[in-house]
Amino acid sequence: MNLTRSHEWTARRLLAYGAGILAESETLDVEQHLRSCTECRTRLAAIRPPAGSDPRHLPASLIATWPRSSRLLVGADRDLVVRHLHQCELCRASLEFVGYSEVLASPQHAAPSHWARLGRRWTAWAWAVGVIGAVAGAAAWLLVNPASSLRNRTGWSLLDPRGRAAAAAKVTIETAVDSLARSGLRLPEPGYRGHALDVGVVTSISGLVLVLPPALQPPTPEIGVRNMTITLLREEQEVGSHQGRFYALGDAIRLRPEDRLEAGLYELRFSLAPADSAGKPLEFVYRLRVR
Amino acid sequence: MGPQAQNPSSSAPEWEALHQVARQNIRARLRSLPAGTVEDLSREVLVTLFRLSRRERLVDPEALIHTLAHRVCVDHVRRQRGPTGRLDPVLDAESPLEAGGADSPSDIPADMLELFRFLVLERFRDLDFPCQELAKRFYVEQSWSTVAEQMGLRHPTVIKRWARCIQQVRRLVRTQQGRLWEWARSVSPR
User: Rounded to two decimals, what is the model's pTM?
Assistant: First the structure.
C-alpha cells in the first residue's frame, strides 16, 4: 500500500478507530500508518476526550441536551443510562445543574430501516417463497397446537377498549431491546406446553428481558407491518400492554414494573392483527411464574 | 440554567456570568449558529466546567471556558459533518471554524462518539472488568501503543485482547436498531 492510498484509507477509519470498533487487522494497519503520519495523528487528537471529561460518565453533550438526546436511547442502552444515573452522583448533579430531571424522555422509535432495505432487495420470487413459508409454518403450528396457543381474540382483548380500561398499566413493555443483555430469558417456540416459565424476581432496575423465538419474528415485510399487541395479565387483570408494528418487536422485549413485580402466575399474550378486517388475530400465550 | 446551579465550593463561580461568557465565545467562533445551538453548546461547556469545579477549585474559569468553548465548537463541526465526514485537526484556540452543512439543533444533539464510548464502558462494567480497563485506557489515550506501554504488554497482544472484547459489540453494531447503532454502522467501513 503506498503512503497516499494508506493515508486516505486511514482517514476514513479514524472515527471507527476512535470508537474502538475496527477489526483487529485494520486496527494494526491504522496504528502503523499513524506512526508515520503527523496529519492523521493531529486529526485523531480531535476526538480524544477533552480535558475535564471522563468517558465513564454521561457525555456533557447528552446532559446539555437531555430532553432531546435521551429520546435517542432505546433498549439496553437506555437501561445502562438509567442504571448509571442511579449509581452516579456526579451525573445526577450535572443534570440538576442544567435544570433537568434524571427521567429519560420517551424513546424515539426508529424507522424499520432493515426491513425497508430488505424489501428493496427482495425479488418477486423471494417474496413468494417468504409468504408461502409463513403460511405453511403457521398452518403446521396450528395443526400441532390447535387450542392452547391460538385463540380467537374476543372479549377481554387489549384490542377491546373494555379490556384496556379494566386496569391501569403497572408494567412497561419495551420492545427491540438488546437480545444479548445479561440474564435475558429465551422464550420457547409458541405452543410450548410445559409448566409456567420460572422467571425469578422481576424488579424495576433490570426488568425482565425475554428473547423472542423465530416464530415471533416477522417472516415477511408484509406481515411485519401488521399490528402486534402484547399484554401482560395477572389473574385476568391487565398489568401492562404495548401496541406497535410486528417488526418493531425486534429480537427481545423487556417487562419493566414500576416497582418489584408481585410474585405469582402471569400470562403474556402476543396478538398479531389479521391481514384484513375479516380475519382473526393470531395469538401466542406464555405463562410466567414470578417469584 | 442558572437558578438551579448549585454552589460546588465555598468560592462558587458566578455561573450565570460564565454562561454568558461561554455563549459569547461560541458565537465568536461559529458566527452563523442558530440561537438554539449556541445555547446547547454553551450548556455543554458549562456542564464540563461544573464537573471540573466538583473536582478542584477553579482558578481561572473564564480561561477554561475559552479552551472548552473552542473544543465544543470543533466537536460541533465534526458532528454536523456526520459519521462519514473527515476529521479536522485541532487548530489553535484562536483559529476561526467553518460550520459544516445545514445546522439543525434538533438533529442528534448528543455526540454519538462520546455516547458510544460511554455505553461500551458501561456494557463492560457488567460483563468484563479487564475489557472495561482496556476500553477506558484506549478511549483516553486513543492509541493502543500507549495502552500497551502503560500495561507492560506487547502491542499486538493488547490489540488481540481488545479484538476479543469488542467482538460482541461489533456484532451489535451490525444488528441493533436505533440512532446510536446507525451511527456506529456509518463509521464502520464496509
Answer: 0.60
